[in-house]
Write a structure and sequence with these properties.
By secondary structure, this protein is of the alpha+beta class. It is 51% helix and 11% strand. The chain folds into three domains: 2-39; 43-140; 143-310, NADH Oxidase (3-Layer(aba) Sandwich), CATH 3.40.109. The strands form two sheets. A four-stranded antiparallel sheet has the order 2-3-5-4, with helices on both faces. Strands 1-6 form a two-stranded antiparallel ribbon. α2 runs antiparallel to α3. The protein is globular, with a radius of gyration of 24 Å. It starts with a helix and ends in an 8-residue tail after the last helix. Bound molecules: flavin mononucleotide. Flavin mononucleotide binds at residues 60, 64, 164-165, 167, 217, 270-273, 298, 312, 314.
Length: 330
């Protein structure tokens, strides 16, 4: 009888906890929805930060194009016009002088100089460049493999500054080296040491192509990628509703550590988003055999780099744009 009562009490407590987590989850997702609808840049393009992010995305497309392994002259004409319009609109509404917008003009000037020999008319681009005579062309860095990995054993500030994504791949990475990098990334911290992250390493080109066709961010280099690392986070480790973002937070911490680890082991890699529709996510789980309790967080395209290649400059925001102090300044 006592045993029966104890079991019933345990079951009731579990049921109460289950109901409470479901209730909290509904509240939390309602709050997330409101946050997203009220603030996501995609829905509020009139705001300055959103307009600037749009310009950064615009110049990033061109920077990527300028560094592509098989660059095609004349690429991205529509992207150029779109970026010119965004810059004109931004400066009209918010004024000139923003560092990221100035970089965008520099990238456009580099694009124009590379295309100087072509008989193409780009009057709107030329007008924008004439209006900013003080901004020089922002050419993308060209590096040797040795220089790219030279800071492997340097102090952390140099090592961190030397890490960049690379979209040039010239050969296979041994499985052992991937294993060493993933083992090093296990040093990542995680909430209560629950270690949510998992890695699915894909070295079948058919699966790679299927995945990249869904992902859409590897145009121009996807077919040269040797291995794809799919980083997931186990939702089983999430204990209550307020931790609803924990798979992505802990997965993101792991992703950054893995990026450093790959760089340390001399593996060229490009981090790839997994911003896909629910249907695509389900399909990818299916054909990769990833269980549904693992949320896909990010992909890595990996390979050995060639002797020399270009990397995108990708300049960062200024410190005051990022760091805000809250306090009395002691
Ligand atoms: C979350 C995330 C998603 C990304 N997705 C892609 C992608 O789909 N395709 C791509 O070529 N690069 C992608 N990148 C690479 C970024 O463009 C790159 O990290 C950024 O421009 C900064 O450059 P750096 O890493 O060389 O410093 C992604 C990076 C992150 C962190």
């Amino acid at each position: 009888m006592i045993g029966f009562l104890k079991t019933a009490k345990r079951r009731l407590a579990a049921l109460a906890q289950n109901v409470s987590v479901r209730f909290d989850a509904m509240r939390a997702f309602r709050y997330d929805k409101k946050q997203f609808m009220s603030n996501a840049g995609a829905l509020h393009l009139d705001r300055k930060a959103a307009a600037r992010a749009e310009i950064v995305m615009g110049y990033h497309v061109l920077e990527k194009g300028l560094t592509m392994p098989r660059r095609r002259l004349g690429f991205g004409k529509h992207a150029v016009i779109h970026l010119v319009n965004l810059i004109n609109d931004f400066e009209r509404r918010f004024g000139a002088g923003d560092a990221q917008v100035r970089h965008a003009v520099g990238v456009l000037r580099a694009y124009r100089e590379i295309h100087r020999c072509l008989p193409c008319q780009m009057p709107r681009l030329d007008a924008l460049l004439s209006a900013h005579p003080d901004i020089p062309a922002a050419f993308e860095p060209h590096v040797s493999r040795a220089a790219f990995f030279a800071a492997k054993d340097a102090p952390f500030p140099q090592f961190a500054a030397s890490r960049h994504v690379c979209r040039h791949f010239a050969g296979p990475v041994p499985r052992k080296t991937i294993e060493a990098a993933v083992a090093l990334a296990l040093t990542s911290p995680s909430a209560c040491n629950r270690q949510h992250a998992r890695v699915h390493a894909v070295d079948d080109p058919v699966l790679r192509d299927r995945l990249f066709a869904m992902q859409g961010g590897t145009r121009g280099f996807g077919d040269t990628v040797d291995k794809v690392l799919v980083v997931t986070a186990d939702l089983s480790a999430v204990r209550w509703a307020w931790e609803r973002h924990d798979a992505y937070v802990n997965g993101g911490v792991f992703v950054m550590n893995l990026s450093y680890a790959l760089h340390y082991f001399g593996i060229a890699h490009c981090i790839l988003h997994w911003s896909v529709s629910p249907e695509t996510d389900v399909k990818a789980h299916g054909f990769l055999g990833i269980p549904s309790n693992e949320a896909i967080v990010q992909l890595f395209a990996c390979g050995m780099p060639p002797e020399e290649f270009d990397i995108a400059a990708s300049p960062r925001l200024d410190l005051p744009d990022v760091l805000a102090w809250h306090g009395d300044g002691k």
